[in-house]
Specification:
Length: 142
């Protein structure tokens, strides 16, 4: 069985955006993701994209009215709430926080040192998805 040490993360969050192209640009600028792959349909919509961060990855695409798409709700459709929140381990949480804030991330939990170790913060991206970033790495915690 592959492990994250040899293949990257084995759990990859998936998100949908109303404007996936703009979301990709913003996620790369604000959070430091890198484009791994972006696949468009004939109309230029993002069918599937993969963004990497270290050995982790997220997948995303444009909101679509299909069987899978109808299983997902956008934050503004449900009062800004989420049913999941990606947590991303970052090396320098304070500088990551400042970069995200400068790019216009809506900070919902300000940067703070945590009692259990490391530091962290939470924010929303331009389409309202909730993200959590921190220097606490559960793979290397004692």
């Amino acid at each position: 069985m592959p492990t994250s040490a040899t293949t990257g993360s084995t759990i990859i969050p998936g998100l949908r955006y109303r404007n996936a192209h703009a979301a990709i640009d913003w996620l790369c600028k604000a959070f430091g993701f890198e484009r791994h792959a972006v696949y468009e349909n004939d109309q230029g919509s993002v069918e599937h994209a993969q963004l990497s961060y270290g050995s982790g990855m997220i997948m995303l695409g444009d909101v679509r009215d299909n069987e899978f798409g109808r299983r997902m709700a956008q934050p503004e459709e449900i009062g800004g709430r989420e049913t999941q929140c990606p947590y991303v381990v970052v090396a320098n949480c304070k500088s990551h926080y400042l970069q995200a804030k400068e790019a216009g991330a809506v900070i919902v939990d300000d940067y703070a040192e945590k009692d259990y170790g490391g530091a962290g913060y939470s924010c929303r991206d331009p389409e309202g998805h909730l993200w959590s970033f921190g220097s606490y790495d559960p793979w290397h915690a004692s």
